[in-house]
Amino acid sequence: MNEHLFFQRALSPWMNEEGPDSDIVLSSRIRLARNMRKYPFPTVFTNEEAMQIVQLFERLFSQKSFDRIGSFFLLKMNELQSIEKRVLVEKHLISPHLAEDCTFGACLLSEQEEASIMINEEDHIRIQCLFAGFQLKEALKMANALDDWIEQHIDYAFDEKYGYLTSCPTNVGTGLRASVMMHLPGLVLTQQMNQLIPAINQLGLVVRGTYGEGSEALGNIFQISNQITLGKSEEDIVEDLTGVVRQLIEQERMSREALVKTSNIQLEDKVYRSYGVLTNSRIIGSKEAAQCLSDVRLGIDLGYITNVPKTILTELMILTQPGFLQKYAGGALRPQERDVRRASLIRERLHQWK
């Protein structure tokens, strides 16, 4: 495989799959934080120790192929251009912290991009598995299989009382972060989302934007994840999150049905106005594009628009981010240049389906 594909394709191959409840749940993710007993944590290790850890994983995975996943490809942060790192962040394959602050960090990526292992981020190892739709348990199964294989070769920092030891106390215990990416325009349009967020937080879960902590929920896309990692098993954490997500799915569907019943013509008008903006604009900012794409995806799910694939929201939300726009342009772009290129790219993509 040519490693440049990681930076050229907006949609990871797994995103093309039709997962359960994919009209509302865009993706499911499991992330496990782990550290090695023999090395200081990344907050205090030396550059030399960081390079040793990368070399260790390079050797460990060089000849390994997994049944479900295949082979992994190592990408070193200090060998990537800043735009390439930004592209990986926009595809949710690495964190902003690894891209911006970890000179001697690296990432192991599977060919289909459903699995990635960040090295020398906040912890020595962060295993991440991504599935289309609502498939938390399947993602956990894959992550645990990778974790078990790595543990056969590496002595983890583990305490009988506290569990897996991590750089941040909020990850101690299972080291597990389970999350789902949800498209919730119905709850936003019916003004229920602002009431639901505090209630979700009281259950030990957190609601964030598209790119995690501190990010905005562009295009009505919200990330729901667990906060508690200590005192519960991995299965219990996933089960708790699953219960809340199922309730949100039900409430989102009810909200969409109510909108169709009470405001059908207004909703259809909103969808087609956004479709018109996307297919005709010559300049469009990222926030406006995200909102219009959300409206169009809602229109697809409700059957108003039948000639555009569902994946258009995910594809264009990623493809029109600054990293991808500049990667395709072959260099840095000023903000207005990005807005022009974003509009052009969206028009080209949507005209394919006319």
UniProtKB/TrEMBL annotation:
**One Pfam family, short name:** ATP-gua_Ptrans
**Which terms does the UniProt entry file under GO BP?**
phosphocreatine biosynthetic process
Q: Has keyword ATP-binding? A: yes
Question: Which residues make up the binding site for ATP?
Answer: 27-31, 92, 126, 177-181, 208-213
Q: SUPFAM superfamilies, per this entry?
A: Glutamine synthetase/guanido kinase (SSF55931)
Top EC class, one word: transferase
The segment(s) forming the Phosphagen kinase C-terminal domain are: 24-255
Enzyme Commission no: 2.7.14.1
- Care to name a GO molecular-function term for this sequence? creatine kinase activity
Protein name as catalogued: Protein-arginine kinase
Supply the source organism's classification.
Bacteria, Bacillati, Bacillota, Bacilli, Bacillales
The gene designation is: mcsB
